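Morning!

As promised:
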Amino acid sequence: MVMKKLKELSFFESLLEDPKNHLVEKAIEQGRIAIGYNCYVVPEPLISAGKVFPVWMRAPGITSTPQADYYLSSVICSYAKSILEYGLDGEYDFIGALIFAASCDHIRRSGQHFHLLNLNDDDDKFFTYVLDTPHKVNEAGIHWLINDMKKAVDKLNENYNANINEDTLRESIKELNKFNRLMKSIGDMRKGDRPKITGTEFHKVYGASKVAPKDMLIEPLKRLRAELEARESDITDETRLMVVGPNIDNPEFIQLIENQNAIVVADRFCFGSLPGMELIDEEGDPYYNIVKHYLETCQCSRMMEKGKERIEYCSNIAKEYNAEGIVFETMKFCDLWGYEGLTYVDGIKAHNIPIVRIEREYSLTGEGQFRTRIQAFVESIKNKKELSVLNKI
Amino acid sequence: MKKFFCGCDVGSTYTKCVILDDEEKIVSNATIRSKMDPCESARLVLLEAVKNADGIDDPKDFAYIVGTGYGRTQVELANENISEISCHAMGVHTVNPNIRTIIDIGGQDVKGINVGEDGSVIDFGMNDKCAAGTGRFFEIMASCFEMTLQEFSDLSLQAKKVVPITSQCSVFAETEVISLLAQKKPAADIAAGIQMSVAKRCFVMIKRVGLEEEVTVTGGCARNEGLILALEKCLKVKIVRLDVDPQLMGALGAAVFAYRKNLVKCSQK
């Protein structure tokens, strides 16, 4: 699959090269405060209000984690270690706070070391905060999280005069909805028989939207959409796949899958878009709307009592996007998704959707083995089609 | 003019080639030790296989070539490459269509493959993270006994009991074996322990994929009769011995794919 290079794509690609990209630098120069986060249930509108903006914690290009290996146990996942390694290297010195959720213990351990090791403490303003996000969706849980979120907001206002209040939160919700309408119009281009955007391209764009202020991305995104609308698709007989699992923030993973005569048309991973592009209610209490939205739409295995719903969700997405198979990727030592796999794989098979389970590290090591597995999976789907052709000869 | 089809399996330790004629019959095969450069391995094995075949003198004259194995993308003359998982399934299906589970023990990884009635891959699992339980592991173990792989296999068949090997890691297992030899434990019993430790690693992977009879073993290690017996004991199934060299199954499957791909190509003209 070789699609003509998109002119507007290089702008988004440049944002993924370093944690402190040129838009982050520009925003900081304007007096805005970068807030590090790394979980879907740390609501983006909360850390996009007033003077703050969100930056998804990544470690682009990391190859090893020798310092983090010293501080963290050998059974902590390589994503949590990579983030800490970058913190220890000073790559995240620009963030004003690190807000994470009580989703997985590995991320908590990683985040706590930012605090314990005083990684960003030059001016005594930096802080880390763990949102005590409930694992079930009900009214009591919603109000519990609202109270907790308000404590984080108080800390941001106190330390940085961040100007986060109900009015700026409403504006933040409106802006995110505006952005998501635009992003969804691009995401929907993956559904058709001949998608105009590859999975790799989409994830470069979507990934970039997580590491820079959204308001600075709207115009480039509009230009990209216009270019895509005029684009001729070269997609013909590529096998259509959906990717499901924990955090992927490196588009090279998607590229590697697509290099095996496949196209990734849908996704459900922590840095992905489904869920992620739904609209938040703009009327009423912004705190309530935000918390309700993120708890209800969350499709992470951290949410208890939603296991069957997650299987149904992915099955429906696979149908909606015409995915012929699912790549279920888990990161080594990931407790949440490792456990999820026990029921998920059989659940998806029961829907007659081919699925392959692949364990990987955060960085792209063992590329050859990863490629072999994906290629064999694509072939197992394709060969069925080919055998039917041969039988007719 | 007769057409010929080629499957070239560039493995980490050995490179194999199978040539089929236009009646889908094997006319030649070749196996060489893999070189550092996979391109060179492929070039040499093709020349070797052609040398043994009647009716074709030059690798450039093949109607269709499929590359497989870890160096599959490096077969310069190949029309396309197909993963070794699909090729092993197709190769075994061609030799014995009743096989439903394949244990492929290669030089650097171990695979469990479920095969459908048509030779397609139903499911598969791989151990590719370390050398434990692979052909490389056996080479290291045989070197502890200063033996060839065949001698090591024969030795294990003479065991009166099995001395358990606790280490899964190739490096630590080597240390453990050297210690056991120093303790004057019978060499045959230690060798049988090594075979059983590998069989147990395969047990875990095969159980995950799903064990369905009939079962066979492919790859270079399929010649290790001591391992086959340990697998039979561990998995509690009879392992089917194939009529064609099990090390050639990847190359054979690739050649069958080459034959079929050519049919599809011709039908589309």
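The first strand of chain A starts at residue 33 and ends at 37.

Hope this helps with the figure draft.
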